[in-house]
Structure formats: structure tokens, C-alpha cells
Amino acid sequence: NAGVTQTPKFRVLKTGQSMTLLCAQDMNHEYMYWYRQDPGMGLRLIHYSVGEGTTAKGEVPDGYNVSRLKKQNFLLGLESAAPSQTSVYFCASSYSPDPALLKDTQYFGPGTRLTVL
Amino acid sequence: KQEVTQIPAALSVPEGENLVLNCSFTDSAIYNLQWFRQDPGKGLTSLLLIQSSQREQTSGRLNASLDKSSGRSTLYIAASQPGDSATYLCAVTMNRDDKIIFGKGTRLHILP
Known about the structure:
- Chain A is an all-beta fold.
- Chain A has no helices and 11 strands.
- In chain A, the strands form 2 sheets. In chain A, strands 2, 4, 5, 6, 9, 10 and 11 form a 7-stranded mixed sheet that branches. In chain A, strands 1-3-8-7 form a 4-stranded antiparallel sheet, with no helix packed on it.
- Chain B is mostly beta strands.
- Helices cover 0% and strands 60% of the residues of chain B.
- In chain B, strands 2, 4, 5, 9, 10 and 11 form a 6-stranded mixed sheet that branches. In chain B, strands 1-3-8-7-6 form a 5-stranded antiparallel sheet, with no helix packed on it.
- Chain B is globular.
- The N and C termini of chain B lie far apart (41 Å).
- Chain A binds chain B through residues 4, 31, 33, 35, 40-45, 48, 50, 56, 58-59, 90, 92, 102, 104-111, and chain B through 31-32, 34, 36, 42-46, 49, 51, 89, 91, 93, 97-105.
């Protein structure tokens, strides 16, 4: 199992450019999450999904969009990047119906470091 | 609005000591509480998860307790080691909407 993977690991954008961050998990998890982590602010939930085809807003959703077309993938989009979106982005997944896996425990990806100039 | 607070923000202790990290939350309508570890430049690793109906969970030298009514959780680390140096975060999952709210973490440094 690869667990939770994120693509890309690093990215530099100019203000106004767009990009998509990809999160993939191979644990058959129902729930997936996107967070951003900033110094002094901790981890803040951007958007999350409780199943394929569903999405919901977290604490800081403005400026981001998400899609969950396939159960294993959760995409985070920035349509027009701003310097305030410079951050480290983490994806996580949880809740597998498989009794062999720990229900509810969140598994995190390694993060994507995004800089917007 | 749920607020999760971790005190202290940073802690340094000599190797071998037992220590306690604190987490408090303002809304007791939680589904579970998790403790995570984060090493510099890395993602988070789940250490312990306590369901709202449970009082504590143990894994090796780690013990986490939960007092939902008072909005508090503690992470106890026994016989600390330099390898325990990391940032420890707690997070609660809300009953009403499955949102997960994190504290800002405690940065722990174990002195050899």
C-alpha cells in the first residue's frame, strides 16, 4: 500500500495562475480532506469529502475548489492563485469499511509546498 | 465555533522524564479526538484515537485520556527519548458535520 500520495511535492506559481493538486489513496477510504498549514495558524480544513461525488466546505474554503469524481482521488484546485495561498497543503483520508484497518484514523500525505509570487 | 487549544506551545525536557501534553476544546459535541505527531517538513502520523465514549487509549509509552464533559485531553509520554522530539497535535471530529478541527500543536524537544 502506498497510503496517501500527493502530487506535486513542490510548486511555484505566479499570481493569477491556476493549478490542481492531486491526492490519491489506496486504502478504500470513504473520507478525504484537504488542509493548509501555516506558521502560527496550525492546520486548517479547506474542503472535505465524505464519499465519491460529494464535497463540503471546511474552515477556509474561499479561493479553492475540489472534486471527488473517483473514490480514490481528491483534487484541490486554485483558479487564480494569490500570495495568501502560499502554504503547505496536506491531504488526508479516513474511514474504511474494512475491519482490518483502523476506522476513523486519519492518514496523511507528505504535503505539497506551494509558493505564490 | 469549536476551538482547540494546546498548551504549552513549546516544551523542552531532559531525556528519561515523563511528560504530559494538554489539549482543550470548547464544544463537547465531538465524535472522536486524535493525537498526531509531525516531524519537521513531514506529514502527520496518527498516534492515538479516542472515541467520544472512551476515556483513554494506550500505545507503548503513550497514553491519551479524554474527559469530554470538561473539554480536555492529555497525552502522557513515559520515559521520554530524543526520538520523541517533534510537534504533537490534537484534533477533534465534530458530530454534526464530520469537520476536523486541529490545535496549533506543542513543539516538544527532548534533551539528550
